[in-house]
Write a structure and sequence with these properties.
By secondary structure, the chain is mainly alpha-helical. About 70% of the residues lie in helices and about 0% in strands. The chain has three helices and no strands.
Length: about 110
């Protein structure tokens, strides 16, 4: 026997070869979908979600990061927190425009 196993070994022990395929194929599909969205993304959520999936794929050779609760938490709450942050920023911009603050949102050099 080998003394090193991949992250798929616990899945193989639980559900065998069909379970490994049923786990790997949807994960690959979802990761590729997020990659294509992140390439054209205009918001933080899509880019950060792909970054989490990339981390799992890149570092999950010996340890299965796919089932860690922080990863699941990030994938579930990143879209929600991103929408909340974008709403707060747009509200701040609207209030700055209403108050007619000169130079709001623009960088001025100290000279």
């Amino acid at each position: 026997m080998f003394n090193v196993s991949s992250y798929l070994y616990p899945i193989y022990q639980d559900v065998g070869t069909p379970g490994v395929l049923l786990f790997t194929l949807p994960v690959m599909w979802f990761s590729h979908r997020r990659f294509r969205q992140a390439k054209t993304a205009k918001n933080f959520s899509q880019i950060a979600s792909y970054a989490v999936l990339y981390f799992c794929a890149f570092f999950s050779f010996f340890v299965n990061f796919w089932f860690y609760l922080p990863v699941i938490f990030q994938l579930v709450f990143l879209p929600f927190l991103s929408r909340l942050a974008e709403a707060m920023v747009s509200e701040q911009r609207r209030s700055a425009v209403r108050l007619e603050i000169p130079g709001a949102g623009h960088f001025r050099s100290p000279a």
